[in-house]
């Protein structure tokens, strides 16, 4: 179950964050997203140690915590997508598919002529599309 997704700009500025759990967990999820930025930066700066090359957008499992697993995806423009899930057995193929769909939704949102690049994404259509993508993979909100 996906409990949180985030889009983080190339300067580590939060562009979008949506959690799919109770409000009590929101602060903890914000902290997990923030901590994952260090792992992403380490993988980008040390590609030989982490496995994926800079040409590969899918960063895979960034790190597991006691209750969550955190996955990352990096675009060519250095925008980072982060997903936090409670599932212990998630297939990489499913996560890749999720990130491809999430990336497509992001591209559509920032292609809007009224969107200011580098600013938070406030589009309700984007939020609804992200919610439907998350629901198609299962979310904590549906249980």
TrEMBL record:
Compartment(s) where it occurs, according to its Swiss-Prot or TrEMBL record: Endoplasmic reticulum; Golgi apparatus, cis-Golgi network; Golgi apparatus
Gene Ontology annotations of biological process type: endoplasmic reticulum to Golgi vesicle-mediated transport
A single cellular component GO annotation: Golgi apparatus
Keyword Transmembrane: no
Main location: endoplasmic reticulum
Highest taxon of source: Eukaryota
Keywords: Endoplasmic reticulum, ER-Golgi transport, Golgi apparatus, Transport
Family to which this protein belongs: Belongs to the TRAPP small subunits family. Sedlin subfamily.
Quaternary structure and interacting proteins, as annotated: Part of the multisubunit transport protein particle (TRAPP) complex.
Protein known as: Trafficking protein particle complex subunit
UniProt source species: Elaeis guineensis var. tenera (Oil palm)
Gene label: LOC105055121
